[in-house]
Amino acid sequence: MKRNILKKVAAGVLMMAATGGLTGCVYSPQTSGTENASGAAVAEQSNRPEKAKGLKVDEKGKYSGDIDLEYQSSKYFYGVLYDEDGYCYICQISPDGKKEKKTEIKTKKFISLISVDDEWVYYGIGNKIYRVPIVSQNNSEILDKEQTECLVKKCSATGYALVSEQKMYYLTVRNVTVSKKLVKGEVQIHCLNLVTGKERVCPKKIADTMSYEDYKEDTSFDCAPSAYITENYIYYMDFRPNYLYQLNKDTLELTVIDELERIGSDTSYSTGMTADGTYLWYVKASAENRKCGYQLCRYDVKKQVKKEFCDGKECLDFICREENVDSKDVESLDIENIVHYDEDKIYIQYNLQLKEKKNVVEDKSGVMVYSMSADKLETLSELCKYFKKYSYEETYDTIYRGSAVDVVDFFVKENAFLLAIDAEIEEYDPWYAVYDMDTKKITKISDKKALQKQDENSTDYLLRQ
């Protein structure tokens, strides 16, 4: 079924391919380092619970959409850009978001930013990780390229390295075996002390696989996990077979918290860490219910306790009642997409697909909420009515009918969902609306304003503080 709605990605990441190997070049360790938590390029809005940053963002700034709060010194935001000659630069963006300046760090290869603090910029090129010192100059700052240090000579996917409390965590892949269907490798986690230069290695390896079709394009093993970093632990996922891993930052003990896939290697899921790093919400695959193979779960980081809530049958029965549908007529219920979460509630967009009848396939969409305190499921009624109000129909050999509304973002500042209306509906121009969770009102907004709001949402962690 073809849909051109802009889809929200729960864990969007840049895919960096690099061959694995043992680490590290020798360097002279510095007594300075980073006290902030930052790292992997996962799109989760609350992936930085350790420390809020200091710079403010002018939401009307020209480059505000390029700003990531994770990458800032005391004076600038840092980002990566390409120029017309194909060079990739690390750039400085002014606090108001209106000025952008190239630094001396440039290459024809892709640069992945890893971490920025008041003294260093950490970045990766290819399978190497570097840091360059930040030097104050005339009430400004520059990157002293001549003092650049190579921290790691060989690692896998530099964009997924993490820096926390003067330690860097990165991955290597060894013992890669290739067959006509699958490529297998052993992923190992390394911890490099950025003050002493001492390195430790997690003794337990993670089995990972990729398809041969993906591997043969550049003959490198992609290792691209999602990760959440908290005060004492790092949580990894997106390996195959896929488990939720917990790494103790102090002991490097690696434990399996949960199995995320039970009904097939292609089953996707969604995750989200609360802003204070206390809870990890996730939807995992489950084979218990054929029509809705998912389970809502929450992991308590402090208590080290996993709890499962609504299973597939509960979700299916609830949505069928809300949609006035007989479960016998249901083909499948998709509840993968987490659109928001907090300490008490998880908000999930659902899509209920009915069995084909007389060459017609119909689906119904909406947002359901599970509340811990109330211990019940509910729907956002006004929002669900809106999903029903705007529909699309596509005709092939089979006619497809469904909702033309989709949740594409959530705004902490306004406590609101951004909605997109399918551009393929001929009687309507493509447009956006905002659903206010406090007033329950839905307001149509311009495309320009919608894009601006998406840019503003890149700063939502600051708005939480």
Could you explain how this protein is built, in words?
This protein has 465 residues and is mainly β. The protein is built from 5 helices and 31 strands. It has helices spanning 212-218, 312-323, 381-389, 447-456, 460-464, and strands spanning 77-82, 88-93, 100-107, 111-116, 120-125, 128-137, 140-143, 149-152, 162-164, 167-178, 182-193, 199-201, 206-211, 226-229, 233-237, 243-248, 254-259, 270-273, 279-285, 294-300, 305-308, 330-341, 345-354, 360-371, 376-379, 391-395, 399-403, 405-411, 416-421, 431-436, 442-445. The strands form 7 sheets. Strands 22, 23, 24, 25, 26 and 27 form a 6-stranded mixed sheet that branches. Strands 4, 5, 6, 7 and 8 form a 5-stranded antiparallel sheet that branches. Strands 9, 10, 11, 12 and 13 form a 5-stranded antiparallel sheet that branches. β6 (128-137) and β7 (140-143) form a beta hairpin. The longest helix has 12 residues, at 312-323. The two termini are 41 Å apart.
